[in-house]
Amino acid sequence: MNLVSDGKIWLESEAPLANTTRWSLPLRLVRAVAKGETANLGNISPLLASNLKTIRDIYAAWIPGHTIPLNFECSSMVDSPASCVSLFFSGGVDSFYSLIKHRDEIDNLILVHGFDIPLADTKAFALAEAQVRDVASFFGKRLIVVRTNLHFEQPDIPCSWGMYHGAALAAVALALAPNHGKVYIASSYSYSDLHAWGSHPLLDPLWSTEFVQIVHDGCETRINKLRALVKSPEALSRLRVCWENPDNYNCCLCEKCIRTMLALRILGVDRCTAFPRTITPDLVRFQELHHDSVLFWRELRDPGLPPPLSAAVRSAIHSCEAGLPPHSGKFKREVKRWLSAVRNAGSALISPIDRS
Amino acid sequence: MYRVTDKDIGIESDAPLVNSQEWAIPLRLVESVVGGKPANLGDVSPLLARNLVTIRDIYAAWIPGHRCSLTFEINSSVTAPASGVSLFFSGGVDCFYSLVQHDDEIDNLILIHGFDIPLAETKTFEQILEQAREVARLFKKRLIVVRTNLHWEESRLYTERPRIPCDWGMYFGAALAAVAYALAPNHRKIYIASSTSYADLHQDGSHQLLDPLWSTDAVQIVHDVGEKRIDKLRVLAQHPEVLPRLRVCWENLDNYNCGLCEKCIRTMLGLRALGVNNSIVFPDTLTPELVSAQKLTDRCVVYWRELLDFGLPADFNAAVRSAIHSFENGLPPSTGHFKRGVKRWLYAARNAGRALIAPLDRT
């Protein structure tokens, strides 16, 4: 087992790791921006050095943080980049889509323990690893498993994980430099939705060095990604979008499962081994959507859905947009829905009064 | 006078222009994305060729349009880039800020007639040209003036009308790239001053994600993202030679800055908050009533939020808060007039009614 560390943060893998501390530069930079401290970054790649100011300015605007001074020296180039190509792989729609899209180019799938699943939860990770190993074996790719304590085991991460995880992915990509010259990060969002987020088409490529090119891939809409997956039954049957139910495959109850099942219905897939349960209009209507999930639901307003499911999708979106709790079929929850409506109406009614 | 054309669209300038059709690639690409027809782009620089699919996908998502098929050949004979650095210059806050920030590097200022100002508006353009010449002289830069009919159709018989395939706000980034290519003999790098900071990523034809993708092996295109608008004004306030020449207003073409439109008012407020005397560049129009009567939009409210609690006198700060509040609550702005006040309450009643029946499923 190979291990690299920087202070109390470590990362280990059976695959070869870089023998410098340059891998942790993204983590140190984001921490300094968040805390407002000078970033001492040591020796760094000339390509990354040319983008550091932009990365700092983006993080300073997004966290939000501070436009801190940057101390670094440009290293001289001695090594040549490895020739292989990797993809961060979790088994969800985005990473499966990138795998299929770049099937001929990709050599390695990277699975990280310690990002979404805590290190202590070995049972959940064992299941995830077994499933990804099956995918790697089917597609003829090498699986690289990485363990790290950079997220859950730290007393505090410098900003929200949503904003930090892009830097964390870059750190893992740089640590694994001996294994690849290019790494794909599958995009969660399409070009229509460019909100500030740790892994972003504007940000990810800026972490590239002369040795590791980092590519933010697949800013297509979620439904178009699923359209590509439907043509690959072997991928569809291995799709895992949900970690709510560690003993089973996809739970078929959570928001992520429901929206994926709805998209599959639109694409003409009524039954799928990855989603064994049947979807009902009530289950759809009861979903509580948030501002970042409602974007995916808007893609589901499609004539391809049966009318009861289509009405339920519109109802869930309407509840989110009107600032109401969703329908639940329970009396107490319905009362809460009406009370929220009365509160919203009251606020609207007194809004012309200038309280400035 | 040099001139390049592509069908009935042309660009002309006193400065040398390219002698190939490559300059019109951005315009042809966007037109194909809008129309859903295959884009035949001819010879393309190797660097641009790598990014064409991404540019197409971004435009297809933003306009929205079609992921049209792309046909092109990679240009094998790449010409060596010229040596200068240019900046698109209109006289507004963003490009003045980029000029001050990159003063040491910039050689040319590019002023375009036919983008914001229709070609028939010669009087207004002459006024702007005069100021731009003065700025170029002060900062010791070469001024390149470009005339183009790519936005407005030229006609003596009727008012000029736009000829563009999509909204100008989405098209003008491609139009800037086309002008940058056409002027390739004059520069190796060109700055496009950003109107937003990284905190604001809304879709726009000129965007931090999109502009650099138009770069070719001959011309690097840089979207110069700076600070927030108020911080840019703070930088400009330290340059007394800049402020009298600032032109932010495109609403009332007969006046240099009208002092009445939203853009004028927010700039005047910014200067006021920074303790700068407005009178050198704006007429004396600023009152709290005028401020609270402004109707804000999604695009501009970002700049107004920067002004809040930023050191404005209390009555102006309250007026800024009122304008933002009206926008956020979907109300017409507060003007102090009785009829407008009634309209505000009617809007509020309508909004309240909608909120009250929201729990009913009308699906």
Tell me the total number of β-strands of chain B.
9
Give, in spatial order, the strands making up the sheet with the most strands of chain A.
1-2-7-6-5-8-9
Discrete helix count of chain B: 11
Order of helices and strands of chain A: EEHEHEEHEHEHEEHHHHHHH
Rg on CA atoms of chain A, Å: 22 Å
Question: How would you explain this protein's 3D organization?
Answer:
- The complex is a heterodimer of chains A (356) and B (363).
- With 356 residues, chain A is an alpha/beta fold.
- Chain A has 2 domains: 216 residues, no CATH class; 101 residues, no CATH class.
- Chain A contains 12 helices and 9 strands.
- In chain A, α3 crosses α6.
- By secondary structure, chain B is an alpha/beta fold.
- Chain B folds into 2 domains: 223 residues, no CATH class; 99 residues, no CATH class.
- Chain B is built from 11 helices and 9 strands.
- In chain B, the strands form 2 sheets. In chain B, strands 1-2-7-6-5-8-9 form a 7-stranded mixed beta sheet.
- In chain B, α1 packs antiparallel against α5.
- The longest helix of chain B has 20 residues.
- Chain B is globular and about 65 Å long.
- At the A-B interface, α2, α11 and α12 of A face α2, α10 and α11 of B.
Sequence-ordered SSE layout with sheet pairings:
The complex is a heterodimer of chains A (356) and B (363).
Chain A: E1 2-6, E2 9-13, H1 25-35, E3 39-44, H2 46-62, E4 70-74, E5 85-88, H3 93-101, E6 108-113, H4 122-139, E7 142-148, H5 161-175, E8 182-186, E9 213-217, H6 222-230, H7 233-236, H8 255-266, H9 281-285, H10 294-298, H11 307-321, H12 331-349
Helix pairs in contact in A: 1-5, 3-6
Chain B: E1 2-6, E2 9-13, H1 25-35, E3 39-44, H2 46-62, E4 70-74, E5 85-88, H3 93-101, E6 108-113, H4 122-138, E7 142-148, H5 168-182, E8 189-193, E9 220-224, H6 229-237, H7 262-273, H8 288-292, H9 301-307, H10 314-328, H11 338-357
Parallel strand pairs in B: 3-4, 5-6, 5-8, 6-7, 8-9
Antiparallel strand pairs in B: 1-2, 2-7
